[in-house]
UniProtKB/TrEMBL annotation:
InterPro entries attached to this UniProt entry: Nitroreductase (IPR029479), Nitroreductase-like (IPR000415)
Listed PANTHER family: NAD(P)H NITROREDUCTASE YDGI-RELATED, NADH DEHYDROGENASE_NAD(P)H NITROREDUCTASE XCC3605-RELATED
CDD domains: MhqN-like (cd02137)
Source organism per UniProt: Abyssicoccus albus
Family statement drawn from the similarity comment of this UniProt entry: Belongs to the nitroreductase family.
Key words, A-Z: Oxidoreductase
Entry protein name: Nitroreductase
Length: 208
């Protein structure tokens, strides 16, 4: 899909819940879309988002009892992308900051000064605070993924209605480490999404 501008792209995204069940997204394309989505900003660039791309019949069967009224999306989508936030994302901190230095994106001194501070800060955060951070970060990537999907000719439906306490274990993402954030159903639409109402700016904005 070609879009002339971001406004057109944003206006064109609607939740779609019925997809062509025979269409699978090639992994190369899925990887490209996810790679672009991960250009999203994240707290101290820790990139805690993890994507479980549920596409096989076996994996979808595991998901089915855990997604309440959202079974049509599971049954017809190319994939249900279950996004988790990694509470132990700090494990990648050395890799991320060293790579930034290697690629000339960050002076070595900045890494050496900032990384220990960041590690110290994250290490002493309570679970709830860390969970809030990884959820915010992962949600930003999720939104980008939905818009990027449109440019690849796919449609999506964000899904929050699932068993948050069970989904991780079912997919090999244990709850003590991974916080479930959102599922994104993705595929080729067979039934177009409908425009949905948005409140006026006056109702939601307050200039102070
Ligand atoms: C966090 C979140 C959770 C949602 N959960 C569900 C869900 O469980 N099932 C569903 O069909 N749609 C779900 N939606 C989709 C919303 O109903 C939809 O985005 C909203 O009505 C606006 O419509 P639009 O996406 O077409 O603009 C969810 C959306 C968000 C952002």
């Amino acid at each position: 899909m070609n879009y002339n501008n971001i406004e057109e792209l944003i206006n064109d995204r609607h939740s779609v819940k019925q997809f062509d069940p025979n269409y699978k997204i090639p992994h190369e394309e899925m990887d490209e879309m996810i790679q672009l989505a991960t250009k999203a900003p994240s707290s101290v660039n820790m990139q805690p988002w993890r994507f479980a791309v549920v596409e096989s019949d076996e994996a979808k069967a595991k998901l089915r009892p855990l997604i309440r009224f959202n079974t049509p999306q599971n049954d017809t989508s190319s994939a249900m992308i279950v996004i988790f936030g990694d509470l132990q994302c700090l494990e990648n901190s050395e890799h991320i900051y060293s790579s930034a230095v290697e690629h000339g994106m960050m002076p070595k001194e900045v890494k050496e000064k900032n990384l220990p501070i960041i590690q110290g800060m994250y290490n002493q955060l309570p679970r709830q605070a860390m969970s809030d951070i990884v959820k915010i970060d992962s949600t930003l990537a999720a939104m980008q993924l939905m818009l990027i999907a449109r440019t690849y000719g796919y449609d999506t439906n964000p899904i929050g209605g699932f068993e948050h306490d069970k989904i991780g274990e079912a997919l090999g993402y244990p709850l003590d480490r991974y916080v479930p954030v959102l599922i994104i159903a993705i595929g080729k639409a067979v039934k177009e999404g409908r425009p949905s109402y948005r409140m006026s700016v006056e109702r939601v904005v307050n200039y102070l």
